[in-house]
Description:
about 0% strand, mainly alpha, two-stranded parallel ribbon
Amino acid sequence: MKYRERQWHEEGRRVTIRRQWVSYGRISPFIARAVVVGEDAKFWRHDGFDLPAIKYALEKDLKARKFALGGSTITQQLAKNLYLGPDKNPIRKIKEAILTWRIEHTLSKRRILELYLNVVEWGDGIFGIEAASEHYFGHSAALLSAREAAELAAVLPNPIRFKPTSSMRYVARRSRLIYAIMVRQGLAAPDGTGAATSAPKAAPPVVETGTVAGASPSDTLTSVDVDALLDSLAQ
Length: 235
C-alpha cells in the first residue's frame, strides 16, 4: 500500500483508500476457492513454492525474451504485498523467497489466505475483499456468489487495468474459465446461484493433480494446466 501511495503522489493524484478488515469466517468460501483456482492451484499442498508453475513461467519468459519471473504463489504474492515493492529483479525475488519460507513456516494456510484476501488491491485504492465486494457488487464479502467470486478472481493478474464488472472480453472469458474449473472440481454448483451461506464449510478433498477425490482421470487439472489455460486468454 505504501508503494501505491507513493505512486499516486508522484502522479499528482489523490486517491481515497477503501479497506475494511474481515475475518476468514466472514468471507464467502467461493472467493477463497476462486482465488486459489485462478492464482495458485496447489496452494493447499505446496510449501510456498509451486516449482512446476515456476518452471512453466520461466520457459514462457525465455520464449518471449523477457525477464518477468512469474509463477508466484499466493504466499509469494502476500510476501510482496506486505513487505516488498513490485520490482522484478533477482535481489527482490531472493528476499521474497526468504519471506515466503518464513510465512509458510509460521502461519497456517487459512491465515495466509485470510491475510491475502484482506490486503490485495482490487482497483485504485480498493484494498481487501470486503471493500471490493461492497464496491463492485453492493454487498459484503460473506454474500459473494460463485460467479461474483470468479469475476473478482479473474482480474487479479492486473486489478488496476481490469475491473470485475467490466465488459472486457479478457475478464469475461477468464471469469468463465475460473468458474468452470470450480464447477468441474466440485467447488461450486453448475448454475452459480447458490448463496455463499449455503455452501459447504470446507472444500472437497483434493488429490495431487488438483481434482476432487473420486473424479475420473480425464477430469484432472494440474496447476500448470490451469496456468496455461488462463494465460491463453491473454493471447
